[in-house]
Design brief:
- The complex is a heterodimer of chains A (262) and B (244).
- Chain A is mainly alpha-helical and 262 residues long.
- Chain A has helices spanning 2-37, 44-56, 59-81, 89-128, 131-137, 142-180, 185-195, 198-224, 229-260.
- In chain B, a hairpin with a 2-residue loop joins strand 8 and strand 9.
- In chain B, helix 5 (132-144) runs parallel beside helix 6 (162-179) and helix 6 packs parallel to helix 7 (190-196).
- The chains are: A mainly alpha (262), B alpha/beta (244).
Chain lengths: 262, 244
């Protein structure tokens, strides 16, 4: 009985130590990345290449996610408010839900799956095939060359993706509202426009920038620290997606508190 | 007579990973224009020694001195960048410079590729399209692209057939001679060591236990060296068959 207790304490201690070790390692990695963002040389070509990869090629998946989210929100809101004859609130709810929450969070989760995983796999493969070591021997700082362009691109492109997602999501709600719920098209658009506040867009885009940073830092970190061949790279990819998805949801709550708690 | 300059110096270098003491006390000087090969069994610390030399791992104790920062390195698996073409790999350092002239860089890369026996058509291929031997050649072209004063070779013939191994060995000797560079190679391929080396050093149990020329290698009475050269399972070297 006593032995079991001690082995439990032992396991708990190991877990706590490894958790704090990993957290400290991640914080140092993030700090190092931030430091190099402002230090020459700047790999502009790599940053543009990554911006296209993150921004342009993620557009279809973000558009699909947000358009269907907008449509679903319109249907659910209509179902709820029609009991109180408040159907006019549908456009308002769609706008607020899409711009403040759905577009940034759904886009971020999609990009985490697409880009975070790809970054972890690519950089992880470079690690286990000694390509990162090769960079060091070729007088190139791997953090500056590989990590900074990805983090900068992710942080800058996510707000743009979300802005487009906002428009498409609201259009999804509009489509359902006009075709299924017989709303007047002009009235729906006027209501949406009148409800629109700059803060809704700004908060969504700020969240997106933070999520973009989280996705790229964690994707790069997991890849950069991966070891042990194909299995290690696979583990890094899984870790990147899971950890960034969890952090996205946590930071979504914290940022919502920050922006909207009166 | 002018005394040759020490280009690489390892002095009492030690490195442990957790409880495993990989390097205990490594001492070795490599002189200008010399080609030294470190031999040793798997797990003897050859790769860790090389990583310490390249600055990829920090030794726990001891001093490492290199007379220059202009170095080249041929990795075991060539470590070519998958996303870049062959010529971009070879000209990587030149392309990282501000206002790099891509045309001039490509021309130089093709020259270096010719030096390792590769045709200009290979320049626009991607590493994934190449065979193991061709990758090694491209890796060698990249290693010599900046005319380095010191070149490191990590198991240059691993994974190659005997003929291609010999081709790579000849290329290494040729490139090092033409550049007048100092070379340090780690390998457990004795044919390669005999062909490349001016001097051979044997690493065993985290220490350099023997240093000598190729001729001295065949005459030595050191039981560790004799066992390793003979490739015999019987002798003082006991291979670990279980992970610690």
């Amino acid at each position: 009985m006593l032995n079991r207790f001690f082995s439990f304490i032992n396991a708990l201690g190991r877990f706590v130590i490894s958790f704090f070790r990993a957290s400290g390692d991640l914080i140092l990695f993030t700090a190092q990345t931030l430091l190099y963002v402002f230090k020459a040389p700047f790999y502009i070509g790599e940053t543009i290449r990554m911006s296209i990869e993150i921004g342009f090629y993620s557009l279809p998946v973000v558009a699909l996610t947000t358009v269907f989210s907008g449509m679903v929100i319109a249907i659910q809101t209509y179902e709820a408010v029609s009991k109180f004859s408040a159907e006019g609130a549908v456009s308002m709810v769609v706008l607020v839900a899409v711009t403040r929450e759905l577009a940034p969070v759904m886009a971020a989760l999609m990009v985490a799956g697409r880009i975070g995983a790809a970054m972890a796999a690519e950089i992880g493969t470079m690690r286990v095939t000694e390509q990162i070591d090769a960079l060091s021997t070729l007088r190139t700082n791997p953090v500056q060359y590989l990590i900074v362009p990805r983090v900068v691109a992710g942080t800058l492109m996510m707000p743009l993706l979300v802005l487009i997602g906002d428009i498409i999501g609201v259009c999804g709600g509009y489509l359902v509202g006009v075709t299924k719920m017989d709303f007047n098209a002009t009235t729906y658009l006027v209501n949406t426009w009148n409800t629109l506040k700059a803060m809704d867009i700004i908060s969504g885009m700020t969240k997106a920038a933070v999520f973009g940073f989280i996705i790229t830092v964690l994707g790069c970190y997991q890849g950069f620290k991966s070891k042990g061949g194909a299995q290690g790279v696979g583990q890094a990819t899984t870790n990147a997606v899971v950890s960034s998805s969890i952090l996205i949801l946590i930071f979504n709550y914290l940022l919502t508190e920050l922006f909207f708690k009166m | 007579m002018k005394e040759k300059q020490v280009k690489i110096s390892l002095s009492h270098v030690a490195k442990a990973f957790g409880k495993k003491q990989v390097l205990k006390d490594v001492n070795l000087d490599v002189y200008e224009g010399e080609s030294v090969v470190i031999i040793g069994g798997s797990g003897s610390g050859k790769s860790v020694t090389l990583k310490c030399l390249l600055g990829l791992t920090e030794p726990d104790k001891g001093k490492i001195k290199m007379a220059t920062e202009n170095i080249g390195m041929l990795f075991q698996g060539a470590a070519l960048f998958d996303s870049l073409t062959v010529w971009e790999n070879v000209a990587f350092v030149m392309l990282q410079k501000k206002h790099a002239d891509r045309t001039a860089a490509k021309k130089l890369a093709i020259q270096k590729l010719a030096q390792v026996g590769l045709k200009p058509e290979v320049a626009d291929a991607y590493p994934a399209d190449l065979s193991g031997g061709m990758k090694k050649r491209v890796g060698l072209a990249r290693a010599i692209a900046t005319n380095p004063e010191i070149i490191f070779f990590d198991e240059p013939t691993t994974g190659l057939d005997p003929i291609m191994s010999d081709v790579i060995n000849d290329l290494i000797v040729d490139c090092v001679k033409k550049l007048g560079a100092t070379a340090l190679t780690i390998t457990h391929d004795m044919n390669s060591a005999r062909k490349i080396a001016d001097r051979i050093a044997m690493l065993y149990d985290g220490e350099i236990i023997w240093v000598g020329t190729v001729d001295e290698l065949d005459k030595t009475k050191n039981p560790y060296v004799r066992q390793f050269v003979a490739g015999s399972a019987k002798g003082p070297i006991q291979m670990e068959v279980k992970a610690e």
